[in-house]
């Protein structure tokens, strides 16, 4: 029987659905949209925060860790490569009451991160992973610490089962696994069998599955096929924040969701842009930031390439309103509008530091500048 709730330390997440951190996407406005559609149910994680930037109180980072008063629990994802800095960041979060839950990112496959030994490259160094987790869990005190990772670097360097066992031994509360290697990036098909194997390997704590969840049906199928305790949704909600409402309905036994018309989608687009403008305290910056979402929201609808281009160069809410009004807003939800969005490329080679694969237990070789302002996983 599919679980209907997830326990993350003292926090009960019902249904067991988590918004994956995505750079430049899962800011406070987007989290607000997703929570509105879910009726406040689920767990919505911040953009990835680098521990060094947090400790140094970088202005952009301090904005990113702001939570709306209605966000409960407040969930921050941290990315770090140095155990000491990770520990300082976690203690800062605790001492200043900045969050209620801390997630650690070991899934980023971006070359400029892996070439420094960070992200999805890091779990290959078992002792370094253990040190980071130990510092985080110790510093967190009563706050639950979870982690997100990939299967490994490539098919010849699979790390997720070892990493999962280390996480359990160091007191991590739950693990999310993206069923791809770093080499796959976002290409190909996610390996849900790996999620099932991880669940069998670490029965002591919840395991969440991530990868290729484009609809509520996909989420329910992943739960059934893998036995995982919850799902993490990333690219599936790009331009589809109402997916969280669909997920709540599915877990609560509701019927098939009503698909929005273009008029309803346009209303969500307008609200998204307005929320960004309010958050950034600058209408032009907010609308410009919204531009990246246009293609995702309009995918499958008869909008036309020229109109998409015009929508993607708007710089005011009034301009956005005028263009949305020109659309054929009575269009029904188009066939094929679900499915892959966002990054879908794959890679054959992961860029790593020289000699990185020589010794999986040697902690040397991770540079402090691996902590870059990027995310993913």
Automatic annotation (TrEMBL):
<comment type="function">
    <text>Catalyzes the synthesis of 5,6-dihydrouridine (D), a modified base found in the D-loop of most tRNAs, via the reduction of the C5-C6 double bond in target uridines.</text>
</comment>
<dbReference type="InterPro" id="IPR018517">
    <property type="entry name" value="tRNA_hU_synthase_CS"/>
</dbReference>
<dbReference type="GO" id="GO:0000049">
    <property type="term" value="F:tRNA binding"/>
</dbReference>
<dbReference type="Pfam" id="PF01207">
    <property type="entry name" value="Dus"/>
</dbReference>
<dbReference type="InterPro" id="IPR035587">
    <property type="entry name" value="DUS-like_FMN-bd"/>
</dbReference>
<dbReference type="GO" id="GO:0050660">
    <property type="term" value="F:flavin adenine dinucleotide binding"/>
</dbReference>
<protein>
    <recommendedName>
        <fullName>tRNA-dihydrouridine synthase</fullName>
        <ecNumber>1.3.1.-</ecNumber>
    </recommendedName>
</protein>
<keyword id="KW-0560">Oxidoreductase</keyword>
<keyword id="KW-0819">tRNA processing</keyword>
<dbReference type="InterPro" id="IPR001269">
    <property type="entry name" value="DUS_fam"/>
</dbReference>
<dbReference type="InterPro" id="IPR004652">
    <property type="entry name" value="DusB-like"/>
</dbReference>
<feature type="binding site">
    <location>
        <position position="77"/>
    </location>
    <ligand>
        <name>FMN</name>
    </ligand>
</feature>
<feature type="active site" description="Proton donor">
    <location>
        <position position="108"/>
    </location>
</feature>
<keyword id="KW-0694">RNA-binding</keyword>
<keyword id="KW-0547">Nucleotide-binding</keyword>
<feature type="domain" description="DUS-like FMN-binding">
    <location>
        <begin position="19"/>
        <end position="322"/>
    </location>
</feature>
<dbReference type="InterPro" id="IPR024036">
    <property type="entry name" value="tRNA-dHydroUridine_Synthase_C"/>
</dbReference>
<feature type="binding site">
    <location>
        <position position="148"/>
    </location>
    <ligand>
        <name>FMN</name>
    </ligand>
</feature>
<dbReference type="GO" id="GO:0017150">
    <property type="term" value="F:tRNA dihydrouridine synthase activity"/>
</dbReference>
<feature type="binding site">
    <location>
        <position position="178"/>
    </location>
    <ligand>
        <name>FMN</name>
    </ligand>
</feature>
<feature type="binding site">
    <location>
        <begin position="234"/>
        <end position="235"/>
    </location>
    <ligand>
        <name>FMN</name>
    </ligand>
</feature>
<keyword id="KW-0521">NADP</keyword>
<comment type="similarity">
    <text>Belongs to the dus family.</text>
</comment>
<keyword id="KW-0820">tRNA-binding</keyword>
<feature type="binding site">
    <location>
        <begin position="21"/>
        <end position="23"/>
    </location>
    <ligand>
        <name>FMN</name>
    </ligand>
</feature>
<keyword id="KW-0288">FMN</keyword>
<keyword id="KW-0285">Flavoprotein</keyword>
<dbReference type="InterPro" id="IPR013785">
    <property type="entry name" value="Aldolase_TIM"/>
</dbReference>
């Amino acid at each position: 029987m599919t679980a209907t709730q997830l326990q993350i330390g003292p926090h009960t997440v019902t249904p067991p659905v988590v918004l994956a951190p995505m750079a430049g996407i899962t800011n406070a406005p987007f989290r607000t949209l997703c929570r509105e559609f879910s009726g406040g149910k689920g767990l919505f994680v911040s953009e990835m925060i680098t521990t060094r930037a947090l400790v140094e109180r970088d202005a952009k980072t301090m904005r990113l860790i702001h939570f709306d008063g209605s966000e409960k629990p407040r969930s921050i994802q941290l990315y770090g490569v140095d155990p000491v800095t990770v520990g300082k960041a976690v203690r800062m979060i605790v001492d200043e009451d900045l969050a209620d839950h801390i997630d650690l990112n070991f899934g980023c496959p971006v070359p400029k991160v892996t070439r420094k030994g960070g992200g999805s490259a890091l779990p290959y160094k078992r002792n370094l992973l253990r040190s980071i987790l130990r510092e985080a869990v110790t510093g967190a005190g009563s706050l639950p610490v979870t982690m997100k990772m990939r299967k490994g670097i490539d098919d010849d360097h699979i790390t997720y089962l070892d990493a999962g066992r280390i996480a359990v031994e160091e007191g991590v509360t739950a693990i999310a696994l993206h069923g791809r290697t770093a080499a796959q990036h976002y290409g190909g098909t996610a390996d849900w069998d790996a999620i099932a194997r991880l669940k069998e390997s670490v029965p002591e704590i919840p395991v969440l599955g991530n990868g290729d969840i484009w609809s509520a049906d996909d989420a329910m199928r992943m739960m059934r096929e893998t036995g995982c305790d919850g799902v993490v949704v990333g690219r599936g909600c790009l331009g589809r924040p109402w997916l969280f409402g669909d997920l709540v309905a599915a877990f609560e036994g509701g019927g098939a969701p009503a698909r929005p018309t273009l008029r309803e989608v346009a209303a969500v687009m307008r609200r998204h842009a307005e929320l960004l403008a309010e958050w950034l305290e600058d209408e032009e910056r907010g609308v410009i930031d919204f531009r990246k979402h246009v293609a995702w929201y309009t995918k499958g609808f008869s909008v036309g390439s020229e109109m998409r281009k015009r929508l993607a160069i708007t710089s005011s809410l009034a301009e956005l309103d005028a263009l949305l009004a020109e659309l054929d807003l009575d269009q029904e939800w188009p066939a094929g509008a679900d499915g892959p969005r966002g990054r879908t490329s794959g890679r054959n080679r992961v860029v790593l530091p020289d000699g990185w694969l020589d010794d999986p237990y040697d902690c040397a070789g991770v540079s402090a500048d691996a902590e870059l302002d990027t995310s993913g996983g």
